[in-house]
Write a structure and sequence with these properties.
The protein is mostly beta strands and about 90 residues long. The protein is built from no helices and 4 strands.
Length: about 90
């Protein structure tokens, strides 16, 4: 096998913190992903693979919250989306 996989990943994100009170804040964000994957190569001595390219664009979202219990103690929680990479 002689396989060549290449990925180009670019991303931009926007995030903002909202101070609800002196002790409580909420964070929200969005990320735009742009992924281009290419594959080419040879699977065995007699079989060449057809080169293939796949392009994907998608949005990922996230949010978080923080509560200040004392000046030195905080409780926080976050949730965010992720993607699972795929080969061509």
């Amino acid at each position: 096998r002689n396989l060549d996989f290449a990925n180009v990943n670019s991303a931009a994100f926007l995030e903002n913190i909202f101070h609800i009170t002196d002790k409580f804040l909420v964070t929200g964000g969005v990320r735009l992903e742009n992924i281009s994957s290419t594959m080419e190569g040879q699977f065995n001595a007699t079989s060449n693979l057809t080169p293939a390219t796949r392009k994907r664009n998608f949005l990922l979202f996230g949010a978080g919250a923080e509560y200040k219990i004392t000046p030195t103690t905080k409780f926080y929680s976050n949730i965010s989306q992720a993607y699972r990479p795929v080969l061509i």
